[in-house]
Amino acid sequence: MKAKTLFDKIWDSHVVSSIPDGPDVLYIDKHLIHEVTSPQAFAGLKQRNLPVFRPEKIVATADHNVPTENQHLPIQDELSRLQVQTLIDNCNIHNIELYGLNHPYNGIVHVIGPELGLTQPGMTIVCGDSHTSTHGAFGNIAFGIGTSEVEMVMASECVLQAKPNKMRITIEGNLAKAVSSKDIILYIISKISASGGTGYFIEFAGSAITNLSMESRMTVCNMSIEMGARGGLIAPDETTFEYLKGKEFSPDNKSWNLSLVKWKQLQTDKNALFDKEWIFNAEDIGPMITYGTNPGMGMSIVGNIPQLNSIPKESRDSFQKSLDYMGFEPGSKVIGKKVDYVFVGSCTNGRIEDLRAFSKLVKGRKKADWITAWIVPGSKKVEEQAKKEGLESILNAAGFELRQPGCSACLAMNDDKIPEGKYSVSTSNRNFEGRQGPGARTLLVSPLTAAAAAVTGRITNPGDLI
Questions:
Q1: CA dist., res. 264 & res. 398, Å (int)
Q2: Region 227-235: what's the mean pLDDT?
Q3: pTM of the model
Q4: Rounded distance, CA 159 to CA 155, Å?
Q5: CA pair distance 347, 322, nearest whole angstrom
Q6: φ, ψ (nearest 5 deg) of residue 26
Q7: Buried b / exposed e along 117-148 (16+ C-beta atoms within 10 A)
């Protein structure tokens, strides 16, 4: 029997049919939706007089456009209020489970899926959101789809999809002090570029990956999309199984052992071939930061921005344009630069582990006077856990406020926008022009590096404060 990758095993077991010289019809186990990319899909079904084929396979939440303060009050922004209400109406019509504002399961779609046990090994999972790749941390095929595909899955529980190539990225060794999974993925993207994964589905492997917690693995898979990949996944192991045990929608006691038998088979075969391989050493990775306007423009926090002559000629104009937008010079350092905003949250770093890391560093210190900080849990469950563990008290004592769940300042679709020209040290996933607000300047970092900036008011190596 031919050796198979984990990706091949899951994909092939979900193919309903294949179109000759075309895409596969892929069955979808779980469909996640939110208020931004679902309204047009529901409207398309209505126009064609089609029902939702399997509503029990769909879970909805409100996250992108919601405020992170006063969620008990009506949403003030008219468009946001309309989108959230439209989601409520559509879920009622089609009998779809909705975790709306103030529901105990509400939160960012890619945070609530794993923490509720909706995300499980061996599944195919889609959502009208590119960072659906997050769920691949559990050993499944998870990817973002467009609005027309959202409608397709609603109508048939299948999606037409061309099978991508396969890449494996292996990271071996032990991480240094103050280095986290966010630094791992920023390092990888800086090495292979923001387009280096285009056309591929990536399996992350190696001792540095298997030593990560599930929440850290989610961060790595979340940003696989930022190197152009279709998605990323990590083979499930005891860490995965322990995380899932006892979750609200995980298999119950009767079916748990049977599920484990299936899940333990989800490994890449020893001699399976990948279309491309990368190998990195964990010891080479330090605290990372981006300096440009795509996630591939990253470097060690103590490093120098590349000189213009080190950039390929065909890319120099765009490179310089990016630095002009950011207000940086080629060859300069960013360490010590004064910043204005700090954002901790998003589907990349809005989990309890991230809030713990941030709180641990700021404990006993004070927020810099000029810093505006938004500390936003990824879900109601994360918010409740942060309070239960006393993290909110630590944050308050240091001058911070724990806000309510939502996508927040990850993207400029709600009230939490960074003003034009201001520098934002952010734990989110994208630093595109205007991503956090028109003219906003975003520097992507880990929660530890965000904490260091929050208490010093400047870009600071977190290793110096630990």
A1: 44
A2: 98
A3: 0.97
A4: 10
A5: 25
A6: -105, 125
A7: bbbbbbbbbbbbbbbbbbbbbbbbbbbbbebe
- Three-class DSSP category at 431: coil
What is the distance in angstroms between the CA of the first residue and the CA of the last residue of the chain? 51
Residue 194 CA: distances (Å) to CA of 166, 227, 243, 309:
17, 4, 31, 20
Query: How far lies 154's CA from each of 31, 42, 147, 227, 445, in Å?
Result: 8, 8, 11, 29, 36
User: What is the gyration radius of the CA atoms in the chain, in angstroms?
Assistant: 21
Measured between alpha carbons, how far is 323 from 328 in angstroms, rounded to an integer? Answer: 5
Residue 216: predicted pLDDT = 98
**From the DSSP assignment, how many helices (H) and strands (E) are in the chain?**
16, 18
CA distance 379 to 363: 23
User: What confidence category does residue 92 fall into, taking pLDDT thresholds of 50, 70 and 90?
Assistant: very high
Going by the DSSP 8-state scheme, the letter that residue 163 receives in this structure is P
Domains assigned to the chain: 1-286 (3.30.499.10), 288-464 (3.30.499.10)
The predicted structure's pLDDT at residue 254: 87
220 CB-near residues (< 8 Å, 6+ apart)? 137, 181, 184, 185, 204, 209, 212, 232, 234
Contact 358, 451 (CB under 8 A): yes
pLDDT range class, residue 1, cuts 50, 70, 90:
confident
Contacts of 186 (CB under 8 A, 6+ apart): 223, 288, 289, 290, 295, 298, 444
Closest C-alpha among 393, 357, 356 to residue 465: 357
If we measure between CA atoms, which residue out of 409, 407, 411, 360 comes closest to residue 386? 360
Separation CA 430–CA 144 (nearest Å):
16
The Cα–Cα gap between 292 and 67 comes to 28
The secondary structure of 218-278 as a DSSP string is HHHHHGGGGGT-SEEE----HHHHHHHTT-TTS--HHHHHHHHHHHTT-S--TT---SEEE
Measured CA to CA, the distance from residue 241 to residue 256 in angstroms comes to: 10
- CA atoms within 13 A of residue 16's CA, in its CB half-sphere: 12
